[in-house]
Amino acid sequence: MIIFDTCAVTCFSLSLQPFEYPVCTEEGVVFDLASTVVQFEKQICSFPPQKLEAKSLIKLNLAKNNDGKYYHCPVLYNVFTNNSHIVANKVTGNVFSYEAVEQLNIKTKSFKDLLTDEPFTRKDIITLQDPTNLDKFNVSNFFHVKNDLKVLDPDEEKAKQDPAYHLKTTNLETRETLAELYKEYKGDELLASTMKEPQAKKTDKLNAAHYSTGRVSASFTSTAMTPATTHEADAIADDTVRYQYVKKKGYVRLHTNKGDLNLELHCDKVPKAGENFVRLCKKGYYDGTIFHRSIRNFMDEFRPNLSHTGRGILSMANSGPNTNKSQFFITFRSCTYLDRKHSVFGRVVGGFETLTAMENVESDAKTDKPKSEIKIISTTVFVDPYEEADAQIAAEREKELQKQEEEKQQANIALKKAKEEQAPKTFKAGVGKYINPATM
Protein backbone atom coordinates (compact mmCIF):
# COMPACT_ATOMS: atom_id res chain seq x y z
CA MET A 1 0.00 0.00 0.00
CA ILE A 2 1.36 3.42 -0.96
CA ILE A 3 0.75 6.19 1.56
CA PHE A 4 0.98 9.85 0.52
CA ASP A 5 -0.54 13.27 1.30
CA THR A 6 -3.39 14.55 -0.81
CA CYS A 7 -4.57 18.10 -1.31
CA ALA A 8 -7.84 18.75 0.53
CA VAL A 9 -10.87 19.87 -1.48
CA THR A 10 -11.05 23.16 0.45
CA CYS A 11 -7.39 23.97 -0.26
CA PHE A 12 -5.86 25.35 -3.41
CA SER A 13 -2.90 23.60 -4.95
CA LEU A 14 -0.31 26.36 -4.81
CA SER A 15 0.07 27.08 -1.08
CA LEU A 16 -2.00 24.05 0.08
CA GLN A 17 -3.98 26.44 2.30
CA PRO A 18 -7.79 27.01 2.39
CA PHE A 19 -9.01 29.17 -0.50
CA GLU A 20 -11.13 32.32 -0.33
CA TYR A 21 -11.91 32.98 -4.01
CA PRO A 22 -11.57 29.59 -5.76
CA VAL A 23 -10.85 29.21 -9.48
CA CYS A 24 -9.72 26.14 -11.43
CA THR A 25 -8.15 25.05 -14.68
CA GLU A 26 -9.74 22.71 -17.24
CA GLU A 27 -7.73 19.88 -15.66
CA GLY A 28 -9.43 20.49 -12.30
CA VAL A 29 -6.48 22.10 -10.50
CA VAL A 30 -7.89 24.54 -7.94
CA PHE A 31 -6.28 27.92 -7.19
CA ASP A 32 -7.17 30.97 -5.18
CA LEU A 33 -7.89 34.14 -7.15
CA ALA A 34 -5.67 36.19 -4.81
CA SER A 35 -2.66 34.05 -5.80
CA THR A 36 -3.20 34.02 -9.55
CA VAL A 37 -1.14 37.22 -10.04
CA VAL A 38 1.91 35.52 -8.54
CA GLN A 39 1.02 32.40 -10.52
CA PHE A 40 1.11 34.33 -13.80
CA GLU A 41 4.42 36.03 -12.86
CA LYS A 42 6.08 32.69 -12.04
CA GLN A 43 4.43 30.90 -14.99
CA ILE A 44 3.99 27.83 -12.76
CA CYS A 45 1.20 25.33 -12.48
CA SER A 46 1.01 22.80 -9.70
CA PHE A 47 0.23 19.63 -11.67
CA PRO A 48 1.03 19.03 -14.45
CA PRO A 49 3.70 21.75 -15.06
CA GLN A 50 2.50 24.13 -17.75
CA LYS A 51 2.06 27.81 -18.48
CA LEU A 52 -0.98 29.51 -16.97
CA GLU A 53 -3.17 32.08 -18.70
CA ALA A 54 -5.86 34.22 -17.13
CA LYS A 55 -8.49 33.21 -19.66
CA SER A 56 -7.95 29.53 -18.84
CA LEU A 57 -9.15 29.94 -15.24
CA ILE A 58 -12.75 29.14 -14.37
CA LYS A 59 -14.45 30.77 -11.39
CA LEU A 60 -15.97 28.20 -9.04
CA ASN A 61 -19.24 28.69 -7.16
CA LEU A 62 -19.28 26.51 -4.06
CA ALA A 63 -22.31 26.34 -1.80
CA LYS A 64 -22.11 26.14 2.01
CA ASN A 65 -24.49 24.50 4.44
CA ASN A 66 -26.76 26.42 6.83
CA ASP A 67 -23.99 26.71 9.44
CA GLY A 68 -21.75 28.39 6.88
CA LYS A 69 -18.83 26.17 7.91
CA TYR A 70 -18.70 23.42 5.28
CA TYR A 71 -19.05 23.24 1.51
CA HIS A 72 -21.76 20.89 0.26
CA CYS A 73 -23.61 19.83 -2.86
CA PRO A 74 -26.41 22.36 -3.52
CA VAL A 75 -28.64 19.56 -4.87
CA LEU A 76 -28.14 16.58 -2.54
CA TYR A 77 -26.89 18.69 0.41
CA ASN A 78 -24.19 16.17 1.33
CA VAL A 79 -21.07 17.79 2.84
CA PHE A 80 -17.88 17.59 0.77
CA THR A 81 -15.07 15.60 2.40
CA ASN A 82 -11.72 14.22 1.26
CA ASN A 83 -13.58 11.10 0.13
CA SER A 84 -16.22 12.92 -1.94
CA HIS A 85 -16.31 12.73 -5.73
CA ILE A 86 -16.69 16.40 -6.74
CA VAL A 87 -17.17 17.92 -10.17
CA ALA A 88 -17.71 21.40 -11.59
CA ASN A 89 -19.65 22.76 -14.56
CA LYS A 90 -17.18 24.56 -16.84
CA VAL A 91 -19.94 26.78 -18.28
CA THR A 92 -21.45 28.07 -15.02
CA GLY A 93 -18.69 27.26 -12.51
CA ASN A 94 -21.18 25.62 -10.16
CA VAL A 95 -19.81 22.75 -8.08
CA PHE A 96 -21.80 19.54 -7.42
CA SER A 97 -21.26 16.04 -6.15
CA TYR A 98 -20.66 13.60 -8.98
CA GLU A 99 -23.63 11.54 -7.76
CA ALA A 100 -26.05 14.39 -8.46
CA VAL A 101 -24.63 15.06 -11.94
CA GLU A 102 -24.60 11.36 -12.77
CA GLN A 103 -28.21 10.75 -11.69
CA LEU A 104 -29.79 13.96 -13.00
CA ASN A 105 -27.67 14.81 -16.04
CA ILE A 106 -25.70 11.89 -17.42
CA LYS A 107 -28.25 9.09 -16.99
CA THR A 108 -31.15 11.26 -18.14
CA LYS A 109 -29.03 12.77 -20.94
CA SER A 110 -30.31 16.17 -19.88
CA PHE A 111 -27.19 18.33 -19.89
CA LYS A 112 -28.56 21.45 -18.24
CA ASP A 113 -27.08 23.04 -15.14
CA LEU A 114 -28.91 21.82 -12.05
CA LEU A 115 -29.11 25.36 -10.62
CA THR A 116 -29.29 27.76 -13.58
CA ASP A 117 -30.69 25.40 -16.25
CA GLU A 118 -27.96 26.54 -18.69
CA PRO A 119 -27.04 23.93 -21.32
CA PHE A 120 -23.59 22.28 -21.35
CA THR A 121 -21.89 19.23 -22.82
CA ARG A 122 -20.41 16.20 -21.11
CA LYS A 123 -16.93 17.54 -21.91
CA ASP A 124 -17.73 20.57 -19.74
CA ILE A 125 -17.77 18.38 -16.61
CA ILE A 126 -14.50 18.99 -14.71
CA THR A 127 -13.40 16.59 -11.99
CA LEU A 128 -12.15 18.50 -8.96
CA GLN A 129 -11.72 15.46 -6.72
CA ASP A 130 -11.99 11.74 -7.41
CA PRO A 131 -11.29 9.37 -4.49
CA THR A 132 -10.67 6.55 -7.01
CA ASN A 133 -7.89 8.53 -8.76
CA LEU A 134 -5.74 9.99 -6.00
CA ASP A 135 -2.53 10.19 -8.05
CA LYS A 136 -3.82 13.37 -9.63
CA PHE A 137 -3.92 15.08 -6.25
CA ASN A 138 -0.73 13.62 -4.75
CA VAL A 139 0.95 16.65 -3.16
CA SER A 140 4.43 15.20 -3.60
CA ASN A 141 3.92 15.17 -7.39
CA PHE A 142 3.04 18.86 -7.58
CA PHE A 143 5.55 20.76 -9.70
CA HIS A 144 6.04 23.61 -7.23
CA VAL A 145 6.53 21.15 -4.35
CA LYS A 146 9.14 19.15 -6.27
CA ASN A 147 11.05 22.31 -7.21
CA ASP A 148 10.52 24.05 -3.85
CA LEU A 149 8.80 27.06 -5.46
CA LYS A 150 6.98 29.13 -2.86
CA VAL A 151 4.44 31.91 -3.08
CA LEU A 152 5.29 34.69 -0.65
CA ASP A 153 2.36 36.39 1.03
CA PRO A 154 3.30 40.06 1.68
CA ASP A 155 1.09 40.23 4.76
CA GLU A 156 2.59 37.04 6.15
CA GLU A 157 6.16 38.17 5.44
CA LYS A 158 5.44 41.42 7.27
CA ALA A 159 3.94 39.52 10.19
CA LYS A 160 7.05 37.33 10.42
CA GLN A 161 9.07 40.40 11.40
CA ASP A 162 7.17 40.47 14.67
CA PRO A 163 8.78 38.03 17.16
CA ALA A 164 5.31 37.15 18.45
CA TYR A 165 4.52 35.53 15.08
CA HIS A 166 6.61 32.49 16.01
CA LEU A 167 4.83 31.96 19.33
CA LYS A 168 2.18 29.32 18.72
CA THR A 169 0.41 29.36 22.09
CA THR A 170 0.85 31.79 24.97
CA ASN A 171 -1.03 32.24 28.21
CA LEU A 172 -2.42 35.53 29.50
CA GLU A 173 0.55 36.22 31.77
CA THR A 174 3.02 35.73 28.91
CA ARG A 175 1.05 38.04 26.60
CA GLU A 176 0.90 40.77 29.25
CA THR A 177 4.63 40.42 29.93
CA LEU A 178 5.47 40.66 26.22
CA ALA A 179 3.17 43.66 25.77
CA GLU A 180 4.92 45.45 28.63
CA LEU A 181 8.32 44.53 27.19
CA TYR A 182 7.50 45.85 23.72
CA LYS A 183 6.51 49.23 25.20
CA GLU A 184 10.05 49.81 26.45
CA TYR A 185 11.94 47.61 23.96
CA LYS A 186 14.85 49.43 22.36
CA GLY A 187 16.78 46.46 20.98
CA ASP A 188 16.60 47.66 17.36
CA GLU A 189 17.89 51.12 18.32
CA LEU A 190 20.75 49.62 20.31
CA LEU A 191 21.62 47.30 17.45
CA ALA A 192 21.59 50.19 14.99
CA SER A 193 23.85 52.22 17.26
CA THR A 194 26.39 49.38 17.45
CA MET A 195 26.41 49.10 13.66
CA LYS A 196 27.47 52.73 13.27
CA GLU A 197 31.16 53.28 12.70
CA PRO A 198 32.61 55.09 15.73
CA GLN A 199 33.58 58.66 15.03
CA ALA A 200 37.28 59.36 15.05
CA LYS A 201 38.36 61.24 18.15
CA LYS A 202 39.60 64.76 17.44
CA THR A 203 43.21 65.40 18.30
CA ASP A 204 44.90 68.61 19.33
CA LYS A 205 48.22 69.69 20.78
CA LEU A 206 47.38 68.15 24.17
CA ASN A 207 46.12 64.68 23.26
CA ALA A 208 47.93 63.94 19.97
CA ALA A 209 50.16 60.87 20.35
CA HIS A 210 53.60 60.45 18.77
CA TYR A 211 52.30 57.35 16.97
CA SER A 212 49.58 56.98 14.32
CA THR A 213 46.21 55.26 14.44
CA GLY A 214 47.55 52.46 12.23
CA ARG A 215 44.64 52.76 9.80
CA VAL A 216 46.86 53.07 6.72
CA SER A 217 48.75 49.84 7.33
CA ALA A 218 45.59 48.04 8.52
CA SER A 219 43.63 49.00 5.40
CA PHE A 220 46.57 48.00 3.21
CA THR A 221 46.78 44.49 4.66
CA SER A 222 43.08 43.80 5.31
CA THR A 223 40.16 43.96 2.89
CA ALA A 224 37.78 44.33 5.85
CA MET A 225 39.11 47.82 6.59
CA THR A 226 38.04 51.00 4.84
CA PRO A 227 40.96 52.21 2.68
CA ALA A 228 42.97 55.01 4.30
CA THR A 229 45.86 56.92 2.68
CA THR A 230 46.64 59.56 5.29
CA HIS A 231 48.55 58.99 8.51
CA GLU A 232 46.78 60.49 11.50
CA ALA A 233 48.09 60.83 15.02
CA ASP A 234 46.29 58.62 17.50
CA ALA A 235 44.40 60.28 20.36
CA ILE A 236 45.67 59.73 23.89
CA ALA A 237 43.00 58.77 26.42
CA ASP A 238 41.42 61.75 28.18
CA ASP A 239 42.33 60.48 31.65
CA THR A 240 45.97 60.05 30.64
CA VAL A 241 46.06 63.68 29.51
CA ARG A 242 44.25 64.93 32.61
CA TYR A 243 46.44 63.06 35.05
CA GLN A 244 49.53 64.79 33.63
CA TYR A 245 48.11 68.06 34.97
CA VAL A 246 47.31 66.75 38.45
CA LYS A 247 50.21 68.04 40.57
CA LYS A 248 48.51 68.60 43.93
CA LYS A 249 47.21 66.55 46.82
CA GLY A 250 43.52 66.12 47.45
CA TYR A 251 41.91 66.68 50.86
CA VAL A 252 38.73 65.07 52.19
CA ARG A 253 37.08 64.98 55.61
CA LEU A 254 35.11 61.96 56.83
CA HIS A 255 32.40 62.86 59.34
CA THR A 256 31.83 59.74 61.49
CA ASN A 257 29.85 59.01 64.64
CA LYS A 258 33.21 58.80 66.45
CA GLY A 259 34.47 62.15 65.18
CA ASP A 260 36.11 63.60 62.07
CA LEU A 261 39.00 62.19 60.04
CA ASN A 262 41.00 64.47 57.74
CA LEU A 263 42.48 62.59 54.78
CA GLU A 264 45.25 63.61 52.41
CA LEU A 265 44.99 61.91 49.01
CA HIS A 266 48.06 61.22 46.87
CA CYS A 267 46.36 62.40 43.68
CA ASP A 268 49.70 63.45 42.21
CA LYS A 269 51.10 59.92 42.55
CA VAL A 270 48.07 57.63 42.14
CA PRO A 271 45.63 59.83 40.19
CA LYS A 272 43.17 57.12 39.19
CA ALA A 273 42.60 55.81 42.73
CA GLY A 274 42.47 59.36 44.04
CA GLU A 275 39.87 60.49 41.50
CA ASN A 276 37.77 57.40 42.17
CA PHE A 277 37.63 58.22 45.89
CA VAL A 278 37.00 61.95 45.36
CA ARG A 279 34.11 61.31 42.95
CA LEU A 280 32.49 58.78 45.29
CA CYS A 281 32.75 61.27 48.16
CA LYS A 282 31.17 64.04 46.07
CA LYS A 283 28.30 61.75 45.11
CA GLY A 284 27.65 60.96 48.77
CA TYR A 285 28.39 57.30 48.07
CA TYR A 286 29.85 56.72 51.54
CA ASP A 287 27.12 58.58 53.44
CA GLY A 288 25.63 56.20 56.00
CA THR A 289 28.28 53.53 55.36
CA ILE A 290 29.12 51.24 58.29
CA PHE A 291 32.65 49.88 58.88
CA HIS A 292 32.19 46.13 58.75
CA ARG A 293 35.60 45.10 60.13
CA SER A 294 37.89 46.47 62.84
CA ILE A 295 41.08 44.57 63.66
CA ARG A 296 43.07 46.11 66.50
CA ASN A 297 46.68 46.88 65.61
CA PHE A 298 45.89 46.00 62.00
CA MET A 299 43.37 47.80 59.82
CA ASP A 300 39.86 49.13 59.60
CA GLU A 301 38.55 47.85 56.21
CA PHE A 302 36.65 49.94 54.15
CA ARG A 303 52.80 52.53 43.65
CA PRO A 304 55.68 51.07 44.54
CA ASN A 305 56.94 54.26 46.22
CA LEU A 306 53.94 54.29 48.59
CA SER A 307 54.08 51.89 51.52
CA HIS A 308 51.78 50.79 54.33
CA THR A 309 54.22 52.30 56.83
CA GLY A 310 52.87 54.12 59.87
CA ARG A 311 49.47 54.71 61.38
CA GLY A 312 46.50 56.03 59.39
CA ILE A 313 47.48 54.83 55.88
CA LEU A 314 44.55 54.96 53.43
CA SER A 315 44.52 52.04 50.97
CA MET A 316 42.18 50.26 48.56
CA ALA A 317 40.62 46.93 49.54
CA ASN A 318 40.43 44.31 46.78
CA SER A 319 39.85 40.64 46.10
CA GLY A 320 42.81 40.22 43.76
CA PRO A 321 44.63 42.00 40.91
CA ASN A 322 42.60 44.62 39.00
CA THR A 323 39.61 44.46 41.39
CA ASN A 324 39.78 47.89 43.06
CA LYS A 325 36.29 49.36 43.38
CA SER A 326 34.97 51.48 46.27
CA GLN A 327 36.10 49.69 49.45
CA PHE A 328 39.02 51.13 51.38
CA PHE A 329 40.74 50.59 54.71
CA ILE A 330 42.71 52.67 57.20
CA THR A 331 45.62 51.07 59.02
CA PHE A 332 46.06 51.27 62.80
CA ARG A 333 49.71 50.17 62.54
CA SER A 334 52.36 49.61 59.86
CA CYS A 335 51.40 46.78 57.48
CA THR A 336 54.30 46.66 55.02
CA TYR A 337 53.40 43.11 53.99
CA LEU A 338 50.40 44.63 52.18
CA ASP A 339 52.73 46.54 49.85
CA ARG A 340 52.27 45.67 46.15
CA LYS A 341 49.01 43.92 47.08
CA HIS A 342 46.85 46.94 47.96
CA SER A 343 47.03 50.42 46.43
CA VAL A 344 47.98 53.15 48.92
CA PHE A 345 46.27 56.38 47.87
CA GLY A 346 46.27 58.58 50.99
CA ARG A 347 46.82 59.00 54.70
CA VAL A 348 45.19 60.45 57.80
CA VAL A 349 46.55 63.96 58.56
CA GLY A 350 44.05 65.00 61.22
CA GLY A 351 41.68 63.42 63.72
CA PHE A 352 43.96 60.73 65.14
CA GLU A 353 41.92 60.76 68.33
CA THR A 354 38.96 59.64 66.19
CA LEU A 355 41.10 56.85 64.73
CA THR A 356 42.02 55.78 68.27
CA ALA A 357 38.35 55.78 69.27
CA MET A 358 37.59 53.51 66.33
CA GLU A 359 40.42 51.16 67.29
CA ASN A 360 39.15 50.93 70.87
CA VAL A 361 35.74 49.64 69.77
CA GLU A 362 35.47 45.96 70.68
CA SER A 363 35.09 43.52 67.80
CA ASP A 364 33.78 39.99 67.43
CA ALA A 365 36.66 37.52 67.78
CA LYS A 366 35.51 35.41 64.82
CA THR A 367 34.21 37.95 62.31
CA ASP A 368 36.12 41.10 63.42
CA LYS A 369 32.81 42.97 63.15
CA PRO A 370 32.62 45.94 65.57
CA LYS A 371 30.19 45.30 68.41
CA SER A 372 29.14 48.94 68.39
CA GLU A 373 28.41 50.73 65.12
CA ILE A 374 31.11 52.81 63.41
CA LYS A 375 29.41 54.85 60.70
CA ILE A 376 30.42 57.47 58.14
CA ILE A 377 27.76 60.17 58.40
CA SER A 378 28.93 62.28 55.45
CA THR A 379 32.01 63.40 53.54
CA THR A 380 33.38 66.82 52.60
CA VAL A 381 35.83 67.42 49.74
CA PHE A 382 38.05 70.44 50.46
CA VAL A 383 40.55 70.23 47.61
CA ASP A 384 39.77 68.57 44.27
CA PRO A 385 42.89 68.76 42.06
CA TYR A 386 41.02 67.15 39.18
CA GLU A 387 38.72 70.15 38.77
CA GLU A 388 41.77 72.38 38.67
CA ALA A 389 43.37 70.11 36.06
CA ASP A 390 40.22 70.18 33.91
CA ALA A 391 40.09 73.97 34.14
CA GLN A 392 43.77 74.22 33.18
CA ILE A 393 43.30 71.89 30.19
CA ALA A 394 40.24 73.85 29.03
CA ALA A 395 42.19 77.12 29.31
CA GLU A 396 45.13 75.73 27.32
CA ARG A 397 42.84 74.41 24.61
CA GLU A 398 41.07 77.76 24.40
CA LYS A 399 44.44 79.48 24.17
CA GLU A 400 45.52 77.06 21.43
CA LEU A 401 42.31 77.72 19.46
CA GLN A 402 42.86 81.48 19.70
CA LYS A 403 46.46 81.03 18.55
CA GLN A 404 45.35 78.96 15.56
CA GLU A 405 42.71 81.55 14.69
CA GLU A 406 45.30 84.35 14.82
CA GLU A 407 47.70 82.35 12.65
CA LYS A 408 44.90 81.72 10.18
CA GLN A 409 44.06 85.42 10.01
CA GLN A 410 47.73 86.36 9.56
CA ALA A 411 48.07 83.77 6.79
CA ASN A 412 45.01 85.22 5.01
CA ILE A 413 46.45 88.74 5.29
CA ALA A 414 49.82 87.60 3.95
CA LEU A 415 48.16 85.78 1.06
CA LYS A 416 46.08 88.83 0.18
CA LYS A 417 49.16 91.05 0.31
CA ALA A 418 51.13 88.65 -1.88
CA LYS A 419 48.38 88.69 -4.49
CA GLU A 420 48.38 92.50 -4.49
CA GLU A 421 52.17 92.61 -4.87
CA GLN A 422 52.08 90.12 -7.72
CA ALA A 423 49.54 92.20 -9.65
CA PRO A 424 51.24 94.14 -12.55
CA LYS A 425 51.63 97.94 -12.09
CA THR A 426 49.67 100.16 -14.47
CA PHE A 427 51.62 103.14 -15.95
CA LYS A 428 49.04 104.51 -18.41
CA ALA A 429 45.71 103.79 -20.01
CA GLY A 430 45.16 101.90 -23.22
CA VAL A 431 47.54 99.66 -25.12
CA GLY A 432 50.91 99.18 -23.37
CA LYS A 433 49.58 100.34 -19.99
CA TYR A 434 51.88 97.90 -18.15
CA ILE A 435 55.07 99.15 -19.91
CA ASN A 436 57.30 101.45 -17.83
CA PRO A 437 58.21 104.48 -20.01
CA ALA A 438 61.45 105.00 -18.02
CA THR A 439 62.85 101.77 -19.36
CA MET A 440 62.33 102.74 -22.97
TrEMBL record:
GO cellular component labels: catalytic step 2 spliceosome
Annotated PPIase cyclophilin-type domain residues: 255-381
CDD domains assigned to the protein according to its UniProt record, in alphabetical order: cyclophilin_RING
Record-level GO BP terms: protein polyubiquitination
GO molecular function per UniProt: peptidyl-prolyl cis-trans isomerase activity; ubiquitin protein ligase activity
Pfam families xref list: Pro_isomerase
Coiled coil regions, renumbered to chain: 386-421
SUPFAM superfamilies tied to this protein: Cyclophilin-like
PANTHER family for the chain: PEPTIDYL-PROLYL CIS-TRANS ISOMERASE-RELATED, RING-TYPE E3 UBIQUITIN-PROTEIN LIGASE PPIL2
UniProt name for this protein: PPIase cyclophilin-type domain-containing protein
